[in-house]
Structures are given as C-alpha cells and as structure tokens.
UniProtKB/TrEMBL annotation:
<dbReference type="Pfam" id="PF00158">
    <property type="entry name" value="Sigma54_activat"/>
</dbReference>
<dbReference type="GO" id="GO:0043565">
    <property type="term" value="F:sequence-specific DNA binding"/>
</dbReference>
<keyword id="KW-0805">Transcription regulation</keyword>
<dbReference type="InterPro" id="IPR003593">
    <property type="entry name" value="AAA+_ATPase"/>
</dbReference>
<keyword id="KW-0804">Transcription</keyword>
<dbReference type="Pfam" id="PF02954">
    <property type="entry name" value="HTH_8"/>
</dbReference>
<keyword id="KW-0067">ATP-binding</keyword>
<dbReference type="InterPro" id="IPR002078">
    <property type="entry name" value="Sigma_54_int"/>
</dbReference>
<dbReference type="InterPro" id="IPR002197">
    <property type="entry name" value="HTH_Fis"/>
</dbReference>
<protein>
    <submittedName>
        <fullName>Fis family transcriptional regulator</fullName>
    </submittedName>
</protein>
<dbReference type="Pfam" id="PF25601">
    <property type="entry name" value="AAA_lid_14"/>
</dbReference>
<dbReference type="InterPro" id="IPR027417">
    <property type="entry name" value="P-loop_NTPase"/>
</dbReference>
<feature type="domain" description="Sigma-54 factor interaction">
    <location>
        <begin position="132"/>
        <end position="358"/>
    </location>
</feature>
<dbReference type="GO" id="GO:0006355">
    <property type="term" value="P:regulation of DNA-templated transcription"/>
</dbReference>
<keyword id="KW-0547">Nucleotide-binding</keyword>
<dbReference type="InterPro" id="IPR025943">
    <property type="entry name" value="Sigma_54_int_dom_ATP-bd_2"/>
</dbReference>
<dbReference type="InterPro" id="IPR009057">
    <property type="entry name" value="Homeodomain-like_sf"/>
</dbReference>
C-alpha cells in the first residue's frame, strides 16, 4: 500500500471516533485528523506548525520537556495504549482532555499513533461559574482519578478538609458515570438521629406509626439507578453503622412498617473530613463498614496544596458573586490572599471574596479591601480554631484533669522546692500537696 492510500485508510479509521482524533508520527507531526477534530479545531491549515505539542499546548518542544507526561512516548516505549489527562488549548479556551494514545505500524513497519481526545466536561480549566475549577497538577491528578473511577461502579471514599470540594467531586464522579442521567442524592449524615435514620433513608409505608397518613419515599429509593452520596459518613453513630453496612452488603432495604425488602440499585460515594482509620482504631467506626465504603479512596488536595489555582478560582468566584460588572483583584490583593492558611479551603475563599465585594468602592479590588475583609473575621475565626483545637484535645481523651497532671509533672521536674512550686502554680502549698496526692 502506498503512504497516500495508507493515510486515506487511516482517515477512515479516525472518522470512526466520535471524539476529535489525530494520527501522529514518531517526530510528533500530526499527519491526519478526523472530521470531529476538523469541526472543533478547524483542521491543520492556518497553523505555523503541525507538531502535536504546538497544536495542543502552544509549546515549542515536546510535552515531557515541559514537565508533562507525553502519551506518545509512553505508548512508544510500552508498545501499548497510554491514557493521560492534559489541559489543551481549544477555541473555547483551556480544556481538560482525557487522551488515549494507541500505537500502530504501517506496511513498512513505521510506527504511528492514534490520539483520541475526549473532552472532560465535569470540570473546567477556565473561570466558569458552578463548575469544579482548577488547572494545577494536584487538581489534574484528582480529575484523572475521578474520570477513571467514574467509569466503574466502585464504592468511593472522598477524604479531605472542610470546604475542599468533596461534594463537588462526588457530583463529578456521578456525571462521569453511566448513571449520569439518573438521580444524585445526598444524605447529610451529621444530623441523623436514631429516629430519623431509618425513615429518612428507607422511608415508611402508610400506617407504619401514628401520624403516618401517607407513605414516604426514602433517600435510598430516590437514588434508584443513580448515585447515593453519604456526606460526613464519619458522623453516623456507631450503633447505626450496622444498618448502613446491611444496606451496602445486601443492596436491599425495608421501609419502616413494610414487611417486604426492596432491592436498591445505587452507586455509593461517601465523604468525610475525619480520619476513619483512626476512628476504627479507637473503636468509633466499624472496621467492616470502613472496608466496604473505602474500596477506592480519593484524597482531595487542600487549597494551599494547589495554590496555583488561586487566580483562576478568584476569577470564577467573582463571576459568580457579581455577573453584571467584571470584577478583578490587583496583584497585591492576590499576593495577600495567597499567603492565607485557608483552613476552610474554597468555601473560606468564597466568603472572603463575598465580603470584599460588599466592601469595595471600585471594580478593581485592592489589597486594602482584602485586608479589611480578612480583618472582619479574626475574632470568630480565632475562636473557632481555638475551639477546634480544644475539641481535638477532648477527642484524644485529653481532659482538664490530664492537662493539670501534665502541668504538675512538668512543674515538679523543674522545681523541687514545693513552696516555690506552689507560688509558680498560683495556689497554696496545701492545694499543691492535695493535687500531687491525687
Ligand atoms: N474546585 C472547585 N472549584 C470551584 N468551586 C469549588 C471547588 N471546590 C470547592 N468549591 C466551592 O467551595 C464550596 C465548598 O465545596 P464543597 O461543599 O464541595 O466542599 P466539601 O469538602 O464537601 O465541604 P464540607 O466538608 O464542609 O461539606 C462550594 O461552594 C463549592 O462550590
């Protein structure tokens, strides 16, 4: 077969893909494109170079020299399909793309690569309101995991600090799954009391109890065919965890007052800001339930772990808050923001910006406005963070009594004179002896 006729055949192969697809040679040249690519990107004409790295990223040299994984090199050396996630330049701006690269050889044993580019719609690399936003490496790694696990029905456990985007990630997993057109149902586990647990989750039939004049559909039934998202699963009381385990293991449930079990069909995604493995060690979380729900654990990066995304997040949050006037932050304002510890992650960033929008006089928000917005917070924030550290001490079993014992132990190790020690501790010698005897 001549090269020309081989390329013609390859164009037909490329056209069988509904996503944009190209054929690349070992020197990174794009030698053929499919109809979908031409429609989206306007073909190859008009470009200074037909090198894949230039077309997709605007780079002057291959992706691996720019710190990214090159799927073509991976496929070349393994001789197998390589899948990576990249951010490509498109006519719509920067876009997350799942790339599949498949090596093939022609009659003369020359190797080429089919590269299929599947746009990832669940997230955005541009400032778009109501999307999961990011471009950083940590964010892209998260997106890749979401895409991979989204294609399966595996149970996912999302771990990460408050406000890091666990609920958004759960929604993205749902959207990337074959259940995307079915319901996504959130169960807030924090507030679930004994009496609420069964009726909220499993519903009840008419006449199940006094006042049950109508039957009520539970959240598990509402999620039928879709995704059940258990938010703050670590807050489910120990004695209720067995009911959750039964639901997950048997995939059946019984509405309150019903005699027959109902089959449940849902994909399970759980989220927690707590360390469930520590809770298992402390006997606060069932080990069997932990293993059931954590088949595929994903840790969400905190905002400080992906601080490169700050300008993009700021832009998209400002668009969300005020869509009529384009608002911007000065460089100094951004620098000030970038230095914040962001314990509350993206939610905290949203609050800071929301206050700044109220405080601003100009459409370009300066450092002083951001500083005022931050200054409005310290009292409550400090109180909360102190309260949280005290709660953590209590969770570790460190009580006032234990702290006092530690204090006295430390005091006695550095001061043998009891009168002087009582003076330092601010109590009488008698009280000191009494406490030491205790
Ligand atoms: N990557 C992101 N892009 C845009 N907005 C985000 C992103 N991550 C989080 N947010 C926003 O931050 C807020 C908190 O996100 P979300 O509720 O998903 O966090 P969470 O980890 O579930 O928090 P919590 O543990 O407190 O429930 C939401 O308003 C969400 O829209």
């Amino acid at each position: 077969m001549t090269t020309a006729s081989w390329l013609k055949t390859m164009r037909n192969v490329l056209d069988s893909y509904s996503y944009p697809a190209v054929l690349i040679d070992v020197d990174y040249n794009v030698v053929a494109t499919n109809k979908s690519y031409d429609f989206r990107f306007g073909g190859l004409s008009g470009h200074r170079s037909a090198k894949c790295y230039f077309l997709s990223h605007g780079y002057q040299r291959p992706c691996d020299l720019e710190g990214e994984t090159c799927p073509m090199q991976e496929a070349r050396y393994s001789g197998q399909r390589a899948s990576v996630l990249h951010i490509h330049n498109t006519p719509q701006g920067k876009e997350h793309v799942g790339i599949d690269t498949i090596p093939i050889t022609d009659d003369s044993e020359q190797t080429y690569f089919i590269e299929v580019m599947k746009p990832i719609r669940e997230v955005s690399a541009e400032p778009i309101a109501n999307k999961m936003i990011g471009r950083s490496r940590a964010f892209n790694e998260l997106v890749e995991l979401i895409q991979r696990v989204g294609r399966t029905d595996t149970n996912v456990l999302l771990m990460g600090a408050s406000g890091a985007g666990k609920e958004l990630a759960a929604q993205a997993i749902h959207s990337a799954s074959s259940r995307a057109n079915m319901p996504f149902v959130t169960v807030e586990c924090s507030g679930l009391t004994d009496s609420l647990f069964e009726s909220e989750l499993f519903g009840h039939v008419r006449g199940a109890f006094t006042g049950a004049t109508h039957s009520r559909t539970g959240l598990v039934q509402s999620a039928q065919g879709g995704t059940l998202f258990l938010d703050e699963v670590g807050d489910v009381p120990l004695h209720l965890q067995v009911k959750l385990l039964r639901l997950i293991e048997t995939k059946t449930f019984r509405s309150v007052g019903d005699t027959k079990p109902t089959a449940a069909d849902f994909r399970l995604v759980c989220a927690t800001h707590k360390s469930l493995s520590d809770m298992v060690e402390n006997g606060e979380f069932r080990e069997d339930l932990y293993h059931r729900i954590s088949t595929f654990p994903i840790r969400l990066p905190s905002l400080t772990d992906r601080i490169e995304d700050l300008p993009l997040l700021v832009e998209s949050i400002l668009m969300r808050i005020e869509d009529k006037v384009p608002l911007k932050l000065t460089e100094e304002a951004l620098e000030l923001l970038a230095r914040q510890p962001f314990k509350g992650n993206v939610r905290e960033l949203k609050n800071i910006l929301e206050r700044a929008v109220v405080l601003r006089n100009e459409d370009v928000i300066g450092r002083d406005v951001i500083q005022r917005s931050l200054d409005l917070l310290p009292v409550t924030q400090a109180k909360n963070s102190n309260l949280n550290s005290l709660r953590q001490l209590a969770e570790q079993g460190i009580s006032l009594e234990i702290l006092e014992q530690r204090y006295l132990k430390e005091l006695m190790s550095v001061c043998a004179d009891k009168t002087q020690a009582a003076d330092i501790a601010g109590c009488s010698l008698r009280t000191l002896y009494r406490k030491l005897n205790q």
